[in-house]
Design a protein that fits this description.
Tumour Suppressor Smad4, 5-stranded parallel sheet, 6 helices, 2 domains, Rossmann fold, 11-stranded antiparallel sheet, alpha+beta, single chain
Length: 279
């Protein structure tokens, strides 16, 4: 087996865990590749360093929070490399285990006692294809306290025209992230749907909408002189202006995760009860 390792570099605990993990895997005769950014912090592992976008492995261990998972996925999209997440973040909804269970969990994985979960990705177009989203695309003004005047259509039918601080188009994976905070529903990742969630709309009738993931969603700016920015999974930004539009479709590729348990609703109960403050 060939395993890649990605981790946050701003947490000492993360660096120490990587060192222990490398020794553990080498003792198991596992081939290892390590993200170049990480080897800058651990020079003794420099020979194992590789650019994340060039990483080829049977799976990638990502140590951090959901941001680390999203960053890793954005670089390996299309390679069908499953990600095994170890939570050192605040909530870590996309991660699988906590640090104290790392080595017992790795024993299970190396013994073949795991399954691969497939998650839907959202394809994004703005005149050209942009990076796909695992969680969501957030559209908002570049200036705080300003509103967007937007038109939303699904399969060429106008669904809503409104003024709002912004809008979120999310996957089921993203339903427990910003979409939830903006009033959107929590959606089981097995549901084949996308969510359209206005952010602070200036319209009483504007509510979150769930649409089939086979739909084509368009979001168009309606006011001259207005500029907006689309943020994909918090990793990539794209500016657009009147009368341009963003187009969303289901991607032909997926994100893959190494799972030990089927515990989506348990995660919802445990991780979202305190809002991540004590987790």
């Amino acid at each position: 087996m060939h395993i890649g390792i990605v981790a946050r570099v701003d947490i000492p605990k993360s660096i120490e865990l990587v060192k222990e993990m490398v020794k553990f895997l080498l003792n198991k005769k596992i081939q290892i590749s390590i993200d170049n950014d990480l080897t800058q912090e651990i020079p003794e592992f420099k020979k194992m360093g590789v650019k994340l976008q060039d990483m080829e492995a049977d799976m990638i261990i990502a140590i951090g929070g959901d941001g680390t998972i999203l960053r890793t996925q954005s670089f390996v999209n299309g390679k069908k490399i499953p990600i095994f997440g170890i939570n050192l973040g605040t909530v870590g909804f996309l991660t699988e285990i906590d640090p104290e269970n790392t080595f017992s969990a790795l024993e299970e994985v190396l013994g073949g006692n795991y399954f691969i979960e497939k998650r839907t990705l959202l394809r994004v177009y703005h005149g050209r294809e942009l990076p796909s989203a695992l969680n969501e695309v957030v559209m908002m003004t570049k200036k705080p306290a300003k509103m967007l005047h937007i038109e939303i259509s699904v399969d060429e039918e106008v669904v809503e025209e409104l003024r709002a601080d912004g809008i979120i188009v999310a996957t089921p994976s993203g339903s427990t992230a910003y979409s939830m905070s903006a009033g959107g529903p929590i959606v089981d990742p097995r549901v084949e749907a996308f969510l359209i969630v206005p952010i602070c709309p200036f319209k009483l009738g504007a509510r979150p909408i769930v649409v089939p993931n086979q739909s084509e969603i368009k979001v168009k700016l309606l006011r001259k002189g207005k500029k907006a920015v689309a943020v994909i999974d918090g990793q990539f930004e794209e500016e657009f202006t009147y009368p341009e539009e963003l187009v969303f479709k289901k991607s032909g590729t997926h994100a893959y995760f190494v799972r030990l348990n089927k515990d989506f609703y348990k995660k919802v109960r445990e991780k979202l009860t305190e809002g991540g403050i004590n987790s």
